[in-house]
Prior knowledge:
Layout: H1 9-17, H2 20-40, E1 45-47, E2 53-55, H3 58-67, E3 69-72, E4 79-80, E5 84-85, E6 90-91, E7 95-97, E8 101-102, E9 106-107, E10 112-113, E11 117-118, E12 123-124, E13 128-129, E14 134-135, E15 139-140, E16 145-146, E17 150-151, E18 156-157, E19 161-162, E20 167-168, E21 172-173
Helix pairs in contact: 2-3
Amino acid sequence: xxxxxxxxxxxxxxxxxxxxxxxxxxxxxxxxxxxxxxxxxxxxxxxxxxxxxxxxxxxxxxxxxxxxxxxxxxxxxxxxxxxxxxxxxxxxxxxxxxxxxxxxxxxxxxxxxxxxxxxxxxxxxxxxxxxxxxxxxxxxxxxxxxxxxxxxxxxxxxxxxxxxxxxxxxxxxx
Length: 174
């Protein structure tokens, strides 16, 4: 992704197609950039009552635009037709999986979500694994449907996990 551009759904999928190694290299670079901004004193945010950060200057807003990832949205839902493995992947800022349709097994074991993650209205047709995943901020599974087993054992939820109206048709392990 070119520096100075906004990470949208197409850019997110293009980066993901490069593979986990390229993804995590990008994530590490963007997280390092945030640390440098903090050291320079230009990282400026307000934090709301749920812990969500909102940029209060242009430079910080640009970082959020470059760091967010959008895999699926209500406006443009995405289907993952095969098994997909996000195990060990780092999501450096807000990640959106709204209305995603996972047709195969999906693995997020040992993934790190540095900011809010939304799986609202997502459908997990096969096994969904979030074992030892780290949710540093809020995560939402409201109205999500898990048709088979859902694994969350040894996951770390540092803030709020919303599951209102989520449906677990198989076994859910927490």
